[in-house]
Design brief:
Layout: H1 3-16, H2 21-26, E1 28-31, E2 39-40, E3 44-47, H3 49-54, H4 56-71, H5 82-96, H6 107-115, H7 124-130, H8 132-136, H9 138-145, H10 155-164, H11 170-182, H12 205-212, E4 216-221, H13 230-238, E5 249-263, H14 270-284, E6 290-301, E7 305-311, H15 314-322, H16 335-346, E8 355-359, E9 374-380, E10 394-398
Helix pairs in contact: 1-4, 4-5, 5-9
Length: 401
């Protein structure tokens, strides 16, 4: 057995998702020389040692894919739809281990994922059978999604386990792992919905304090219900000139301009991104912090800027969240986002930008010089690597669960 190569394969996966270590360790490695593609029977991971040595990245992706099959019970099902099983396994791998999903980033996979938006992973086969898109692209999807060899699947093991009432093994592990995924460690709620945004988190004080430091003087209406004199108004109305006191204004310190860059690269966890947006949503609704009308730009960026959305009020942000789609999945390069913000400042889209927030895991390429505004990189504790963050950038670490 090529234990060194297999150890590297397992190590990569465990480093990316330590809570899935049990799933990767449950599959004992077994060599079959000349095997074209790896496979599993639910207890063993079959592979060709020579191929594994040559392609460690492919071996890691195959092991992640096989473990996803096992978590979803595919090797133990009688007559499963192989394409639907591969699609479900790819969705689960994409959710739990995005960097080890070979189909990730492919246009066809993105289209297929869109057609399955909100479908539980257990209902993928039925949804694919009803959707003409999958009938039209079945062969192309099969070529894209084929990672492992299904001939090792053993449905009799699943039938025997159900007959004996056994609840251990993969079934228990599936409940624990997918339960953790729903709890917010990684991904898009496997077994429930492919993507979901769940608002309601109370923002951390440190985040609010940081934004408050970038508040500026804005003019707002002073609400004074006692300032209206109905008698004077009626007296003037009788004479054709109703008298209304002019509205008073006051100066207040509020945040009225902000740029937010969301790292949508393959290494940044979507669950943490939605958590960050949730905390931001709560702060935008704080009238003591943000102006009622503000200029907020939200940029999605991996190796290039994918989306640039303008938000002017809390209602705009709620609509943005309701239709939220994160676009990316490639490498991480912060320079295009800095360049886009600099162009917005130069053409007057920002009048007095004081700060730009970058939500990321810290792993990417940075510009060589600091911008005219403050750049703050926001991380979640335990989910970032700030070793390459330049000295001119500020950092804010939010508590992680």
């Amino acid at each position: 057995m090529d234990s060194e190569a297999m150890g590297i394969v397992r190590g990569r996966l465990i480093a990316a998702s330590p809570w899935l270590a049990t799933a990767f360790g449950r599959l004992a490695a077994e060599e079959i020389r000349g095997l074209e593609r790896p496979g599993t029977d639910g207890t063993r991971f079959f592979h060709d040692p020579a191929r594994l040595r040559r392609d460690l990245a492919g071996g890691s992706a195959a092991l992640a894919h096989c473990a996803s099959h096992c978590l979803l019970g595919h090797p133990f099902m009688r007559d499963p739809d192989a394409l639907a099983a591969d699609m479900a396994a790819a969705l689960l791998t994409d959710a739990l281990l995005p960097e080890f999903c070979p189909a990730r980033g492919a246009e066809l996979f993105m289209q297929a994922r869109h057609h399955l938006e909100g479908v539980p992973l257990g209902g993928v086969a039925g949804a694919m059978a009803r959707d003409p898109f999958f009938a039209e692209h079945r062969e192309a999807l099969r070529r894209l999604l084929t990672v492992d060899d299904h001939r090792f699947w053993r449905p009799e093991r699943g039938l025997a386990a159900r007959a004996s009432g056994e609840n251990g093994g993969w079934e228990d592990l599936r409940r624990r792992v997918l339960g953790e995924a729903r709890g917010g460690r990684r991904g898009r709620a496997p077994g429930d919905a492919v993507k979901r945004y769940a608002p309601g988190r109370v923002p951390e004080r440190s985040y609010r304090d940081l934004l408050a430091a970038y508040a500026g003087e804005v003019e707002e209406l002073r609400e004074d219900p006692d300032g209206f004199e109905p008698g004077l108004y009626c007296w003037g109305l009788e004479r054709g000139a109703p008298i209304v006191e002019p509205l008073e204004t006051r100066q207040a310190r509020r945040v009225d301009e902000l740029a937010v860059v969301i790292d949508t690269s393959g290494s940044c966890l979507e669950t943490l991104t939605t958590r960050f947006l949730d905390e931001t949503r709560a702060l935008l609704a704080d009238e003591a912090l943000f102006a009622r009308r503000f200029n907020l730009r939200i940029l999605q960026c991996d190796a290039r800027v994918r989306r640039d959305d303008v938000i002017t009020c809390v209602r705009d942000f709620e609509r943005y969240i309701d239709g939220l789609t994160l676009v990316g999945g490639g490498g991480t390069d912060f320079r295009p986002a800095f360049e886009r913000i600099d162009r917005l400042v130069a053409r007057g889209a920002f009048r007095r930008l004081r700060a730009a927030l970058f939500f990321s895991d810290g792993m990417g390429l940075f510009p060589p010089r600091s911008p005219e505004y403050d750049a703050i990189f926001v991380f979640f504790k335990g989910h970032y690597d700030a070793i390459d963050v330049p000295s001119w950038a500020r950092t804010l670490v939010l508590e992680g669960d």
